[in-house]
Each structure stands twice: as structure tokens, then as C-alpha cells.
Amino acid sequence: MKEAFESERIIFIEPSLDLVPEYLVMVNDIENVAKYISDRREPYTEQEEIEYMKEKIAGPDMMYSMIEKETGKFIGNTSFFNINGDEAEWGIVMTASMQNKGFGKEALRRMIEYGFNEGGFRRIYLGVYVDNPRAIHVYEQCGFKEYDRTDVDVFMEIIKPLTVHED
Predict the structure, then answer these.
(1) Pairing verdict, β 123-129 and 153-159
(2) Which one-letter DSSP state was computed for residue 139?
């Protein structure tokens, strides 16, 4: 596992095919995970997940798997995707057993910092299902503001604050 960076309780690593069994547990949990990340309700096969991860690893996205420092347990994946100049879309998916422990908020705060500083982004945006009020609340706590909405999705963004340089 190649470490990329960390936060207080999380090690962010490059995604790995070694984690495919963990990824499958996460994405195939329809009730607690999958219903918030896609419309698909059929389990992914191991081969489908391997092919998906190969594409992600080779592609332009900035994807990281998250590991709990204290226990070494897999938490989930987070990424910047749809990168266009100084803008990127952000997403996160967390395995059910690691939800409701503050890891999502910690990961988001660290990814905002990473995206603005190391990623060079000025704007980070996301889409979240309207029926996921818990996630919307976390995004608002971390500084995201709603800029659009449909019957299905809420679209939110955070803009890098301008820094004032004194002479």
C-alpha cells in the first residue's frame, strides 16, 4: 500500500487491486452504501470490480482508499474526478461498518485542503441525492453551499478563499 497523505485518523493510499474484496463488500451493500452512489441495485462481480479499479488506477482521477490508522481497517474511497483546469468534482463512498464515526467529515476536510493546496483547485463541487440529508448536513458543515437542485440531486460547491498578501 502506497501512502499518499494522511489526516488525524486516516491514511489515504493509492487504490489497489489487493483491496478488491473490501471494495466489493462496500459497493455491494445496497441498503447502506450503494443506494447513495448509483442507481444500480445488482451486486458487482469480482471481475467487474477489478476492471473498474484498473480503469480508475490508470485514469486521470485522483482516487484514494482510506485506511483507519489505529486498526488498519478499510474505511472507503474518496476521489476528485471530472477534473477540468482548476475545478474538480469530489465524491466519497464508505463501507457501512465505518460510517457514523466521523471519518466522512474528517476525510472531506482533508480532501478540501489537499485539493486546494496540492491539487491546485479553485472550486470543488459535488452532487448528492436529495434523500441523503445526513451527507448534505456534513457538506454544509465543511463549507459547501448549494448552487442547484433537481428532484433527485442537490449540487454543492466550495470555492477556495482568496488570500490577501501584505507587502
Answers:
(1) antiparallel
(2) H
In the sheet that 153-159 helps form, which strands lie side by side, from edge to edge?
Answer: 3-6, 10-13, 62-68, 74-84, 87-94, 123-129, 153-159, 145-149
Model-wide pTM > 0.85: yes
The cell for 48 is 467487474
Structural domains in the chain (count): 1
Q: Which helix (H) or strand (E) holds 21?
A: helix 20-27
Helix (H) or strand (E) holding 113: helix 103-117
Domain that holds residue 41: 3-159
19 found inside a domain: yes
Among 129, 135, 123, CA closest to 149? 129
Q: What is the pLDDT of residues 65-123, one digit of tens each?
A: 999 999 999 999 999 999 999 999 999 999 999 999 999 999 999 999 999 999 999 99
CATH number of the domain residue 106 falls in: 3.40.630.30
Quick check: is 57 in a domain? yes
User: Does residue 45 form part of some domain?
Assistant: yes
Whether 165 is covered by a domain: the verdict is no
Cα(111)–Cα(143) distance, integer angstroms = 13
* Grid cell listed for 108: 472531506
